[in-house]
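Deliverable D5.2: sample structural annotation.
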Amino acid sequence: MRHRVRTLATEHPRVYLPFARRKYSGPSPRVIRSDTQVVIDGYTRSASTFAVYAFQLSQPDPVRLAHHLHAPAQLIEAARRGLPTIAVVREPRGAVLSHVVREPGVDLLDALYAYRRFYRSLMAYRPAFVIADFREVTADFGSVVHRLNERFGTSFGVFNGTPSELSLCSQLIELRPTLSPYLLGFESGDVTLAQARAHLDALPAGSGDPLWIPSPSRDRAKAELDVLWSSPRLESTRNAAEDIYHAFSGS
């Protein structure tokens, strides 16, 4: 019930954003505010963490970024303000199974319901976003930023996806669960890359959490849930989620 109430509340900027600003005072998640320059957000487990780090790694100076709220309200408010915005999206099976692996207390049906509501509430604002599918974000994020620059007349740095850049992204993602204010501050544009690197070098070995990056253990957990994915009890909500994915992503 709590999960469904949150799902409904997060669709309304005037209701949810003031609450989120009190709950998430920083450095991450970062709720949209007066100095926000760019918004990157989407349903949870849709590669938004990779997108945020890849984006900041490509900038000569930190960019004030709103991100990781995983609430439609954040993207709706970005559209109303006309901010450069990347809305990430992942096909429902991948996003929902990964969500439930990460939060085992959430039922598959409720996660599917939340996914469908999330993107359905954004359809009217779709033209205001650069839509980036999980596969494009993880394989060619540079093209996403190119489209962002073309769409909004900006000149943000473009991620090249070199082995060293990809390695650093993976390292940052794996270490995110340490909740280091340096790493989380880097996401939001409050900390420079030099400061983040210095902090990385000071962390003891084994500080990260491999479940935050693709791993055999995560794949095994998703495979166990995959048996339930075709359950008849999920059919109508699953089909609705897949329909909204294709409509929103344009695939």
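Annotation notes: The chain has one domain: 2-249. The longest helix spans residues 235-249.
The annotation will be released with the project's public dataset once the embargo ends.
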